[in-house]
Write a structure and sequence with these properties.
- By secondary structure, this protein is an all-alpha fold.
- Helix content is 58%, strand content 0%.
- Helix 3 packs across helix 4 (74-88).
- The model has no long low-confidence stretch (mean pLDDT 77).
Length: 100
Amino acid sequence: MSSKSYDFRQFQAELAALDQTKPEPRQTKPEPKPKPLGKKAAEAARVARAREEFLALRERHQLSVADVVAFFPEEEGIAYLQQLLVASERKPRKRKNTLA
C-alpha cells in the first residue's frame, strides 16, 4: 500500500482554505443587558423557582401531599395545608361600579 506524505502543515493549509471560503458571519448588535428586577419581581421569581424545584422533587420521589406535610412539624404542616386550601379557593371577581 502506498500512502501519500500528508503532514500537519498541509492539513493546516487545507483548513485555512476552508475557512476563507466560508462567508463572514453577520455582526449583530449586542443584546442589551436585562434590567435588574425589582424587589417584588425578584421575590416572585425566587418563589416560582423554589416551587418548580419542589414539584420536580415531589414528582421524582413519588411523594404525596401527606408525605410532604408529615415532613414538617405539625404546626407548619397544618399551615401548609391551609395555604393550599386558600390558594385553591377561587376569589370572587370584583365588579366595576358603573353607576356614577
